[in-house]
Amino acid sequence: MTAPLTTPLTTPLSPTDRTTVRRGRIRAVEERRALFDLLGEALVCHLGVVVGEGAEAHPVVLPTVCAADAEGPDEGGTLYLHGSVAARSLVAAPDRTICVTVTLLDGIVAARSAFHHSMNYRSAVVIGRPRVVTDEAERARALDLIVDQVVPGRAATLRPHTRKELAATVVLALPLLEASVKIRAGGPGDDAADIEAGTWGGHIPLRLVADAAVPAPECGDGPVPDDIRTLVDRLDGPD
Amino acid sequence: MTAPLTTPLTTPLSPTDRTTVRRGRIRAVEERRALFDLLGEALVCHLGVVVGEGAEAHPVVLPTVCAADAEGPDEGGTLYLHGSVAARSLVAAPDRTICVTVTLLDGIVAARSAFHHSMNYRSAVVIGRPRVVTDEAERARALDLIVDQVVPGRAATLRPHTRKELAATVVLALPLLEASVKIRAGGPGDDAADIEAGTWGGHIPLRLVADAAVPAPECGDGPVPDDIRTLVDRLDGPD
Predict the structure, then answer these.
(1) Where is the secretion signal located (chains A, B) (predicted)?
(2) Which residue of A has its CA nearest to B54?
């Protein structure tokens, strides 16, 4: 199940037909580095699993947090996911191929025609069969990576996981081998006739920003930790 | 396939087992009104379909734009999706059950333990079997709704769809009958011992904001249309 640690970051993505970007004016990015950059920025991903059997089988897509580890033990690196042992989507996942998609929304493309309207975005699609992480050290490391994915540096400031917490948590590891990255950026790609007609076209940049941290009531006016302040500052900047 | 127009907005969501919210401290919202409010705010959704057959079958999750119509002809209202006739995920969809998930990210929950870290969000999960929209009037209306979903009011300012554009586009209609809505808000739900230990806990509100519209080069310094200015103003406010 595991593979050498050393899939180079320059290894091409999309080695299989099912993760090949097929169409559109959107740029397919072939470098593994772009995949990790994108995954590193994601506060949420969407996990797609098939639940049920036979005619009852259907996809379920749920938002969750993931964390990529380029040095992880799976071929191409490892994408970690976690959840409650009671979550049927995660419990069903290890026997089946799953899909994890990350989408960072960068803008609205207001074209001169309905047809050419679009969004600017960066997205990654990862397809593979996950393994359940059973090694305790890898489990603890994965859970720390997931906390740090959302608040960088925070895991090191927290008490260790308890046995009870670990027992209640499923950690999955998805190989990052089969993945595709797509990026759309810039203004509309309009038809010449619509441009000549003088209709307005352009794009609206979008970004996610943070407002000031809201301490829990018990924290009063005590100091906000560095990790939280750094995160708020980063998400509040001009870009 | 179609049903009366009049599923009341007070009809409960989650009429089936597969869209019942099963677990967590997250609030399951039962009102149909909440579903439409949430869908109305979404600039992106994630469409999950199963592609392939038998042992090769696997889920694919792709970002796209959807538009809900509470007065649509499907039971519970209609969620419209569109895409290229060349997109295998959309072409595969009508014979199969699909899942559309909308997630609005509202904040980061920084708890006193890794275990209680979370996100604040509002999400909707819709499961059903879509129909391909073939009626030309419904197709045009659906495509207008999709444009207006992203830039309210814009569809009315654009030229009509051409035959070629319509021929290149698949429009799917998904009944909004089977849906669930989940909302998490507020600060962390920490263990008493961790609160007493004095660790900082709180949450960081997040929101999507727009920067000034960037006109296409051919538009020069010409006036930015009202629909675009209104949208930028709305996404640039304090909330």
Answers:
(1) none
(2) A54
Q: Do residues A31 and A17 make contact, with C-beta atoms less than 8 angstroms apart? A: no
Please name the residue of chain A whose CA is at the shortest distance from the CA of residue B82: A115
Residue range B25-57, pLDDT digits in tens: 467 777 889 999 999 999 999 999 998 888 788
Q: Which residues of chain B lie closer than 8 angstroms to A121, CB-CB?
A: 44, 63
Tokens 């975005």 label which residue? Answer: A121
Q: Which CATH superfamily is domain B17-191 in?
A: Electron Transport, Fmn-binding Protein; Chain A (2.30.110.10)
Tokens 């999309």 belong to A14
Mean confidence (pLDDT) of chain B: 88
Per-residue 3-state assignment (H helix, E strand, C coil) for chain B: CCCCCCCCCCCECCCCHHHCCCCCCCEEECEHHHHHHHHHHCCCEEEEEEECCHHHCEEEEEEECEEEECCCCCCCCEEEEEEECCCHHHHHHHHCCEEEEEEEEEEEEECCCHHHCEEEEEEEEEEECCEECCCHHHHHHHHHHHHHHHCCCCHHHCCCCCHHHHHCEEEEEEECCCEEEEEECCCCCCCHHHHHCCCCCEEEEEEEEECCCEECHHHCCCCCCHHHHHHHHHHCCCC
Q: Is the pLDDT of residue A237 over 70?
A: no
Specify the CATH number for A17-206; select among 2.60.120.340, 2.30.110.10, 1.10.287.130, 2.120.10.70: 2.30.110.10
Q: Where are the domains of chain A?
A: 17-206, 209-239
Chain B residues lying within 8 Å of A57, measured CB to CB: 50, 57, 97
Question: Do β-strands B202-210 and B98-110 pair in parallel, antiparallel, or remain unpaired?
Answer: antiparallel
Are A58 and B49 within 8 A, CB to CB? no
The nearest CA of chain A is from the CA of B5 a distance in Å of 27
Considering CB atoms only, which of A61, A201, A219 is closest to B202?
Answer: A219
d(CA A145, CA A147): 5
pLDDT band at A24 (very low <50, low <70, confident <90, very high): very low
| In contact, A75 and A16? CB cutoff 8 Å | no
Distance CA(A71)–CA(A93), nearest Å, equals: 23
